[in-house]
């Protein structure tokens, strides 16, 4: 006999054949909230629309940039071309040879002459172009000791086409992987939690540098995207008061954790840091729930294997073996003063975006806009959050900046100042996520307030992605020559191979798609109120009994 609505109360909407109740989403399209626009976030459409927006902007970057348009791309292309033809570990080079390794690649990719990188006054016109020559040469790369997973995934087109075609395909494969993780983070923030500010947190977390790096051959873009997806997914089972989650949550957590661990040498550290931030402290009840879940145990076993393999690789091949160095006559104390009083602001700017080879900063107000949006979440979450959220936010902040400042200061005498803000983005993206959870638990800024914040953040921040693309294209095409600033992106000393019109159009449409996505999400926000664990348990038992009765 099917139970009546009065017997099940507000959980009657969960009735269905599945053995456990689906989680209440942040955004649930209804006739009163959102209409047709809110319907865009129903089901899997949200993921595909978000993926399209992120991928189009990343593709715009891939088509707009010259060879070596993102840091170390020439070295990464050589590493990827070697891995693509089965050389997962090349011939190791000595420190005198620059460390790294030698790979055998097609001569057409031997074009990294480094003539404009780091010199903002020079356009990319002086750079060499891939020639398409098929004969094999032995080529050095400083990335030759890096873990091979990312390079094997993107490198196979380079073994077939040592031309712009191969480079574009390699870039687009990486862009697609990163965009899939970013879309999954947005989907998880909307569909798998009860915290209406999480979509706004994802908008803040996806900074222009992430999509810029994702558009080039550089594992850092995939690493940042996987870190964000891992943080949002893990928080859904570690911090959310709802104890149950659909199987897809565990799949997202597992895949993103494995990817984050495998793509870069610091991956194991980032993975363990995110796990620690989410589960310290926690309750025995929650920990028992998680560790008795079969899916969690399976993914933990896989993660342990990948983590051990990644650490073993780094130790065995000496991933951090020094090559060419930029020694400085400076003491650690002096270097620490430089870090604290000079480079902290630089790190913050780089987390938002200093494009190209740190030679194409955004217009100053773009940083102000991003810091204001981040500050609203960060300070609000810290000020209003419960003590354990304050601890998590403070610990993650200190970890993110400490990983840059302390090693940089200690090694400045040997290596110079080498750290960049984007290096710690795989964990720093968790700060707005934690802050949104903290505000959600306090029931602060929910309902129409959350809707307004999502829309404000979308209108303020998402167009900056196009501004970053436009501004950096000008830098590549003309160079930055004060006071004679060029503003016409359709001309220049250097132009993208397919012309400037296509990347500009893709970037504009990608921004529009993300704006529509954010507006649809905001249109469906309802004032969800987190419940206590005991209330959640009681509601889950009622919903489960109702579901079984409905199918009896």
UniProtKB/TrEMBL annotation:
Ranges where the record places region Disordered: 528-552
Record-given protein name: DUF2142 domain-containing protein
Source taxonomy: Bacteria, Bacillati, Actinomycetota, Actinomycetes, Micromonosporales
Basic and acidic residues: bias regions: 528-542
Keyword terms: Membrane, Transmembrane, Transmembrane helix
Transmembrane parts of this sequence: 46-64, 168-190, 197-215, 269-284, 296-316, 364-384, 391-410, 422-440, 452-470, 502-521
Pfam families in the record: DUF2142
Record-linked InterPro entries: DUF2142_membrane
Coiled coil spans: none
